[in-house]
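Hello Y.,

Per our agreement to keep a running log of every chain we model this quarter, I'm adding this entry. I've kept the format consistent with earlier entries: sequence first, then predicted structure.
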Amino acid sequence: MLEHAKNVAKTNDVMVARLGYREVATHYGCAYTNDGYRVMEEMAERVPGVTYKESRTLCMDDAMGVGGRHIEITFAHPDLAGWMRAHEANAEMENGGR
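Predicted structure for the entry above:
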């Protein structure tokens, strides 16, 4: 998910990527509406530079009952790069140890 957010930020030439419910839920294959919100809340709690926010504008997702909240990933956060490196190293160790 963070790689997708990094690509969004790079494409838009910004340091903050905003990801809505649909992007998060689709990436994680969430089966139920609340699962996507739970994932966003957990990311905000565990990953430095990620915040969970209420959207202020009405969008198509709001009208369909799956909007109103999003996460913002701030790539300038001083701890995010280190967290991502540690997370990638852990994933490599798990994949290499099988």
